[in-house]
Design a protein that fits this description.
The complex is a heterodimer of chains A (173) and B (161).
Chain A (H helix, E strand, L loop, with lengths): L2 H19 L19 E4 L4 E3 L7 E7 L4 H17 L7 E7 L4 H11 L5 E3 L4 H5 L7 E5 L5 E6 L6 H9 L3
Parallel strand pairs in A: 3-4, 4-5
Antiparallel strand pairs in A: 1-2, 1-5, 3-6, 6-7
Chain B lengths: L1 H18 L8 E2 L4 E3 L5 E3 L7 E7 L4 H16 L5 E7 L4 H10 L6 E3 L4 H6 L6 E5 L4 E7 L4 H11 L1
Parallel strand pairs in B: 4-5, 5-6
Antiparallel strand pairs in B: 1-8, 2-3, 4-7, 7-8
Classes of the chains: A alpha/beta (173), B alpha/beta (161).
């Protein structure tokens, strides 16, 4: 008797069922550590557009922030300090980018202006880029290495992880 | 005949990998704590061993927290007969604002303010909202950053009830 004929189909069905039920929504995160950072087009507050990951050969730190979020505001001094450390003189070792989410555009622009951020700041209209990056709440910081690979994602107030934040940035080099 | 058997055999061997898609590696034991609740009572985690516990960290100013409040309350009501406890822990907030949030969003499950942020520290919470699903053995089976949906809450609860 050719038993494999009867065995194959049920096994395939069971396998596919397990595969599908084992991967629920919360695990479908487009941003995976070790994967390439997804390309996205961002409109800066200056009106220009740019590709979010357009830094070939350069490490990048992208922070998603919101106007209403005290943790976003608390994180600013540390991000500015890191920018200063890795962008002194003529050499830019790490590119920094801030993306506003979950906020009305003008409110975010007003708050970003007060923060006096020395690097590009953009607004993610409709939180489209946030969805591509799997960002669910601000502040979330994405660390991307020189090869464009996502090395780390930190969700939360950088003030609570000050030493780690500088360490994570230096690890990108 | 051997060739025909290979594919199903291979799939059977790969099954454990498929099932592992949504399991946390090495679940941690949730640190015990006592929270003073807004209604005057206290909630001590270790006194709820045997039950599932959903610990939701929130703040009144947190917009995604507002978005998920209804989902939390709805599932709390739906699962009221089951062995699950919902707990809301406000952090980085004032007592009055946090109470106002609870009242505004009609949260009927226990809530309180983690004034000295000791509970926040023990759970390693850095962003809001953050929610921990703890099983009857006190293990954190799932941690969610950002707003929850009803579907997601039920999915994670059904795994541990």
């Amino acid at each position: 008797m050719n038993w494999t004929r009867y065995f194959s189909v049920p096994v395939v069905v069971v396998f596919l069922g397990l595969l599908l039920t084992g991967c629920f929504e919360e695990n479908v995160n487009p941003l995976r550590i070790g994967a390439m950072a997804p390309p996205s087009t961002l409109t800066l507050l200056t009106g220009e557009t740019r590709e979010v990951t357009d830094h070939p050969g350069q490490a990048q730190v992208i922070t998603f922030m919101a106007s209403w979020c005290p943790c976003s505001k608390d994180s600013i001094p540390f991000i500015k300090e890191a920018y200063k450390r890795y962008n002194s003189g003529t050499e830019s070792k790490v590119a920094f980018l801030m993306i506003g989410i979950q906020s009305p555009e003008q409110k975010f622009a007003d708050v970003a202006g007060k923060w006096r951020v020395p690097f590009p700041v953009g607004y993610d209209d409709g939180d489209k880029i946030a969805r591509v990056y799997g960002i669910s709440a601000p502040p979330t910081t994405v660390f991307i290495d020189r090869e464009g690979t996502v090395r780390r994602v930190f969700y939360g107030n950088i003030k609570d992880k000050e030493d780690d934040f500088f360490k994570w940035t230096s690890e990108l080099l | 005949m051997i060739r025909r058997a290979l594919i199903p055999l291979l799939l059977v061997l790969l099954m454990p990998l498929a099932q592992g898609c949504d399991e946390m590696a090495d679940p941690e034991v949730a640190a015990d704590f006592t929270l003073h609740l807004f209604d005057g009572r206290t909630f001590t985690l270790s006194k709820h061993k045997g039950d599932a516990v959903v610990v939701n960290f929130f703040a009144s100013w947190c917009i995604p927290c507002r978005a998920e409040a209804k989902a939390l309350e709805t599932v709390h009501q739906e699962y009221i007969e089951k062995k699950v406890n919902f707990l809301g822990i406000a952090i980085k907030d004032t007592d009055s604002e946090a109470r106002g949030f609870v009242k505004k969003y009609g949260l009927s499950f226990p809530t309180g303010l983690d004034k000295d942020e000791k509970i926040k520290g023990s759970f390693g919470v850095y962003g809001l909202p953050t929610t921990f699903f703890i099983n009857g053995n006190g293990l954190i089976t799932y941690t969610h950053s950002g707003a929850l949906t009803e579907e997601l809450i039920k999915h994670e609860l059904d795994k541990i009830l």
